[in-house]
């Protein structure tokens, strides 16, 4: 069985065109990331000195350092009696105003960290009030508010790191589009090669028949998709690490200000793994669907036509909010975890991102069962 | 064959029918269409006295009805009118009042037309707007062509039919060109079908009247710089669609012959069409001969939005023709390349690799040529704001197109020479000339800019300052995110105008703030945030500017202090060698001694000062007449008349040469007097 899977995988990977595409796309990906880097502002010289002092564990000393300096500089700037000369002694950036502006930014960040538990307490208080309100009523609402309390209780941010670059990395999704094209290139030809070489006659008359062959094909698509996702993700991390200073991998995801209300309670590195899994499910879904379409039509042109139409249709539905659950959403997982969104399933609140991930998996299992158990002769159709 | 085209007609018809109207379509007109059309039937065409009278009559009727209505409401409120009378009153006036929205639209149309009566006619524009501005790549055309053209060659390779074709004499000799011809005809037909459907749907949905009217009658073409009627634009629209179809079909067929596989051909074509959308700036997509630009033809028709100027940049006929010719050359080369591959059935070996390398080199040379071409000469002045022409003794420095040109002794020299930077940049502005150094701001498509100093003696170029726009995190490649990057970018744009330099510092006016930039460390620090206009002068370590209260203020570099030195309302200042020239809003012109601060009247004029030097003051009292006053005597010494509107005057420091930037028909000219 393993031999059959490896053989199917080899058939995909032996296609030089796929490697050509992978290499070209990785170069385009590199250019795109470089372009993003180029479009960002240079940090102010001297700002890193302040950052190096305040980053890491949030302590009273660091907070006092920020507050004292910020208050002192605010007073000076307000009085407008300061020297505007550059390279001044006792400043970090060389300018009083420059220091004021930089301290102001870090001060605001620290303030957000300090206020974060208070902000969460407000949410918890509302959830608690809701529980009292729905005491003997809507079961779903009770469970939903209990979920909020359990997931948002006890949240605090202990460490401070600048998360701008990290957010840029997390929200970078251009490479996902490239993954889709690559999976289409690999999958759409699998059946057609055997049709062309009239191999179905042989396979169907062999002892193990079409079932195992189809099963190994499906598994090879799974491995190929995983390989693609891992390569592209690894290259993304590599390029980002080369161009950006990314810190705070072990910080909780909610430490990024745009994600402060995320229901995801784990660290950023855990989220990146989760993100990779969701993207893998997305890529695998489109891979298997394309394979299924090629199984139905047994024709390259029609496979591409229907496959691309389905993909464009899914994007269209996503843009117009016409479908609640759309596999395209798996390509942009950050949008799924940003806010608290649950779906009522038999009175139980289930996170939206679980549903978006699980439903395509169910469809994949159904398609796989149809493909493996099908008794239709491909030889005759071929 | 007839079934295929019927299918194409049906599918594309459904697509066109279901698509949303363009964003620029005026929905308020559609909501009141019947009344609007009724009035527009009387107005359509060139503006004249009768039409103006008719609109004024409608407006006065509306005003009357509104005041009657208010009066009735007041009377009803105080009990001076019964409820029945009030209701009758409302019913009586409702017919007129219901037309308020339409009359508002008509009067705004009138305002638009009165700005340029000769080129703007009354017209119900929505149909044309929807036709010309339905944005986005023509997805349906792309897919129809892709799916119908790819099998032309690929099917034969995949079913091994090409072997049979090759052994027959006709198959080997004629088959390739027959297939290419068939593919192109098929693509043209599909494109034509789609064009006809678009026109028909817009005709029935909105109506397409006034085909012979000037194109400027449609408000999305308000800045269109050339004289053309709507029919001309329609022909251009159809031509671009057809050229897009031909180009795409040739690319697909040559890729089919090279890759010999359906999947590879389709995926490469999709990548070639879509990836430029993600990695290139909008303008570059149209400047390069890419299928993406032709399929997304809107840019060639309605122009590319220039965030700096807040209006569209249009492509002139020369640019369009150059691009179309390059596309035709590439098509021919692809057909020839395809012919090589068609005769060659084996794998790509060394022999073929050599051919590919030669072909790629040729293509690269063509593209390099494209990048270096000067896109615009005179016409680029349409897209440049004031303050771009500077005169430095015997030199004139212009921002022309993507470059800065120094004109010296009838010779023209490009100052910026790096061709790779030229491709990305959007605009160049000459900020100022200090001594023999010109300061130039180079603005990029991203909104980033850098300030360059160029030594005018030896043309040595240095980057003095670089600014990068902070883009928000998150990029909307799949169009799923809700962030609007463009509006964010617009907010982030900085407007750079005047610029002065000392030995180690640069003083730049950005938006309404003056910044000091350290040339060595590149750090910038705000020094004044109350600068009203870009009329700023520098003299002996002092920067004179007009503040937000229209008073004269002075920033002293040494003391780093700003102070108001004249409380009068001032409209213009200019630093002369021994005194500061001031024009008050009352038009009186004074000179202020730098040391004593005392002012003495030079003269009073009727127009605004356009420029000055140590000997003369240049004023315009009418748009086409420039008066020259002697600075010592305050007397009028010369008057220059032109047939165009004067928008900028520059002179050498002694007044020996005067350069006037004039404008006519939205075109700018530089005249020397």
Outline of this structure?
The complex is a heterodimer of chains A (382) and B (673). Chain A is built from 16 helices and four strands. With 382 residues, chain A is mainly alpha-helical.
Which features would summarize this protein structure in a list?
heterodimer; A: 382 residues; mainly alpha; two-stranded antiparallel sheet; 4 strands; flat; B: 673 residues; alpha+beta; four-stranded antiparallel beta sheet; 19 helices; 29 strands; 26% strand
Give the overall average pLDDT of chain B.
Answer: 75
Low-confidence spans of chain B: 368-387, 417-424, 470-492
Relative strand content of chain A: under 5%
Oligomer: heterodimer
Q: What gap, in angstroms, lies between the N and C termini of chain A?
A: 24 Å
Characterize the biggest β-sheet of chain B. Answer: 4 strands, antiparallel
Q: Radius of gyration of chain B, rounded?
A: 31 Å
Strand order of the largest sheet of chain A: 1-2
In percent, how helical is the residue content of chain A? 55-70%
Describe the overall structure.
Chain A has helices spanning 2-13, 16-39, 47-54, 60-79, 96-133, 139-152, 164-170, 174-187, 190-196, 200-205, 209-243, 268-297, 300-319, 333-337, 352-373, 378-381; strands at 56-57, 159-160, 342-345, 348-351. Chain A is mainly alpha-helical and 382 residues long. In chain A, the strands form two sheets. A two-stranded antiparallel ribbon of chain A has the order 1-2. Chain A has a two-stranded antiparallel ribbon with strand order 3-4. In chain A, helix 2 packs parallel to helix 11. Chain A starts with a helix and ends with a helix. The model of chain A has no long low-confidence stretch (mean pLDDT 85). Chain B has 673 residues and is an alpha+beta fold. Helix content of chain B is 43%, strand content 26%. Chain B contains 19 helices and 29 strands. Chain B has a four-stranded antiparallel β-sheet, with no helix packed on it. In chain B, strand 25 (625-630) and strand 26 (636-641) form a beta hairpin.
């Amino acid at each position: 069985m393993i031999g059959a899977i490896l053989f199917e995988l080899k058939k995909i990977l032996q296609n030089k065109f796929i490697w050509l595409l992978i290499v070209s796309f990785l170069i385009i990906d590199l250019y795109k990331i470089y372009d993003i880097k180029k479009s960002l502002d240079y940090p102010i010289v001297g700002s890193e000195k302040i950052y190096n002092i305040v980053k890491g564990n949030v302590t009273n000393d660091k907070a006092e350092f920020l507050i004292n300096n910020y208050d002192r500089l605010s007073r000076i700037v307000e009085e407008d009696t300061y020297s505007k000369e550059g390279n001044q002694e006792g400043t970090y950036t060389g300018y009083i105003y420059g220091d004021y502006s930089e301290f102001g930014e870090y001060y605001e960040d620290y303030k957000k960290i300090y206020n974060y538990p208070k902000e969460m307490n407000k949410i918890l208080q509302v959830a608690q009030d809701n529980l009292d309100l729905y005491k003997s009523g809507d079961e779903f609402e009770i469970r939903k508010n209990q979920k909020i309390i359990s997931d948002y209780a006890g949240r605090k941010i202990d460490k401070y790191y600048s998360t701008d670059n990290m957010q840029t990395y997390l929200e970078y999704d251009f490479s996902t589009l490239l993954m889709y094209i690559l999976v289409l290139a690999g999958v759409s030809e699998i059946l057609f090669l055997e049709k062309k070489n009239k191999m179905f006659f042989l396979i169907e008359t062999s002892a193990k028949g079409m079932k195992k062959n189809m099963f190994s094909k499906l598994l090879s698509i799974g491995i190929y998709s995983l390989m693609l996702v891992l390569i592209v993700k690894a290259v993304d991390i590599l390029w980002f690490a080369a161009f950006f200073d990314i810190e705070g991998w072990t910080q909780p995801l909610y430490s990024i200000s745009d994600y402060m209300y995320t229901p995801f309670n784990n660290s950023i590195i855990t989220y990146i793994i989760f993100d990779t899994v969701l993207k893998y499910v997305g890529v695998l879904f489109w891979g298997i669907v394309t394979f299924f379409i090629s199984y139905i039509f047994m024709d390259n042109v029609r496979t591409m036509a229907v496959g691309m139409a389905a993909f464009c249709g899914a994007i269209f539905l996503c843009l117009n909010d016409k479908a609640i659950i759309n596999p395209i959403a798996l390509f942009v997982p950050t949008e799924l975890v940003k806010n608290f969104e649950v779906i009522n399933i038999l009175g139980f609140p289930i996170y939206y991102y679980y549903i978006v991930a699980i439903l395509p998996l169910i469809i994949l299992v159904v398609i796989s069962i149809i493909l493996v158990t099908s008794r239709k002769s491909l030889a005759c159709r071929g | 064959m007839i079934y295929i085209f019927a299918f194409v007609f049906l599918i594309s018809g459904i697509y066109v029918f279901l698509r949303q109207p363009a964003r620029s379509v005026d929905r308020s007109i559609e909501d009141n269409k019947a009344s609007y059309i009724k009035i527009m039937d009387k107005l359509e065409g060139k503006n004249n006295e009768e039409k103006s009278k008719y609109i004024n009559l409608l407006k006065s009727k509306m005003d009357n009805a509104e005041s009657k209505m208010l009066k009735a409401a007041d009377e009803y409120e105080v009990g001076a009118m019964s409820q029945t009378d009030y209701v009758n009153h409302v019913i009586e006036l409702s017919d007129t009042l219901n037309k308020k929205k339409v009359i508002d639209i008509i009067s705004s149309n009138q305002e638009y037309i009165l700005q340029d009566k000769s080129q703007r006619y009354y017209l119900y524009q929505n149909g044309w707007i929807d036709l010309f501005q339905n944005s986005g790549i023509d997805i349906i055309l792309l897919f129809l062509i892709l799916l119908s053209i790819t099998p032309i060659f690929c099917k034969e390779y995949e079913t091994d039919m090409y072997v049979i074709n090759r052994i027959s004499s006709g198959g080997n000799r004629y088959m390739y060109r027959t297939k290419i011809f068939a593919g192109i005809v098929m693509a043209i037909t599909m494109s034509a079908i789609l064009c006809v459907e678009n026109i028909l749907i817009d005709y029935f949905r909105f109506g397409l009247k006034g085909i012979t009217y000037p194109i400027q009658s449609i408000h999305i073409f308000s800045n269109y710089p050339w004289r053309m009627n709507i029919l001309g634009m329609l022909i251009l629209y159809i031509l671009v669609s057809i050229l897009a179809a031909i180009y795409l079909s040739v690319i697909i067929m040559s890729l089919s012959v090279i890759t010999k596989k359906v999947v590879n051909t389709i995926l490469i074509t999709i990548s070639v069409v879509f990836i430029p959308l993600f990695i290139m700036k909008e303008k570059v997509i149209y400047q390069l001969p890419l299928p993406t630009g032709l399929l997304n033809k809107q840019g060639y028709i309605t122009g590319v939005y220039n965030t700096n100027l807040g209006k569209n940049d249009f492509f002139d006929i020369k640019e369009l023709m150059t691009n179309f010719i390059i596309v035709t050359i590439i098509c021919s080369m692809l057909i020839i390349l395809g012919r090589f591959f068609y005769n060659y059935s084996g794998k790509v070996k060394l022999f073929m690799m050599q051919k590919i390398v030669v072909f790629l080199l040729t293509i690269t040379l063509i593209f390099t040529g494209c990048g270096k071409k000067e896109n615009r000469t005179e016409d680029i002045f349409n897209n440049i704001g004031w303050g771009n022409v500077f005169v430095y003794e015997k030199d004139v420095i212009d921002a022309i197109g993507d470059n800065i040109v120094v004109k010296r002794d009838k010779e023209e020299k490009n100052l910026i020479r790096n061709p790779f930077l030229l491709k990305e940049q959007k605009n160049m502005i000459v900020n100022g000339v200090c001594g023999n150094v010109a300061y130039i701001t180079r603005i990029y498509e991203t909104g980033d800019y850098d300030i360059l100093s160029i030594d005018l003696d030896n043309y040595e170029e240095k980057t003095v300052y670089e600014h990068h726009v902070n883009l928000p995190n998150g990029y909307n490649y799949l169009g799923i995110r809700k962030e609007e990057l463009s509006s964010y970018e617009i907010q982030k744009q900085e407007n750079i105008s005047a610029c002065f330099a000392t030995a180690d510092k640069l003083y730049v006016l950005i938006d309404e703030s003056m910044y000091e930039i350290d040339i060595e460390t590149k750090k910038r620090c705000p020094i004044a945030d109350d600068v009203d206009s870009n009329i700023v002068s520098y003299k002996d370590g002092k920067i004179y500017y007009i503040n937000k209260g229209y008073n004269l203020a002075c920033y002293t570099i040494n003391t780093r202090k700003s102070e108001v030195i004249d409380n009068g309302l001032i409209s213009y200042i200019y630093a002369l060698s021994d005194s500061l020239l001031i024009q008050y809003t009352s038009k009186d012109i004074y000179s202020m001694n730098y040391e004593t601060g005392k002012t003495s009247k030079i003269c009073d004029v009727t127009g605004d000062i356009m420029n000055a030097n140590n000997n003369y003051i240049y004023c315009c009292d009418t748009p086409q007449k420039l008066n020259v006053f002697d600075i010592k005597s305050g007397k009028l010494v010369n008057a220059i008349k032109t047939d165009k509107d004067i928008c900028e005057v520059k002179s050498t420091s002694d007044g020996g040469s005067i350069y006037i930037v004039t404008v006519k028909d939205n075109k700018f000219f530089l005249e020397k007097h």
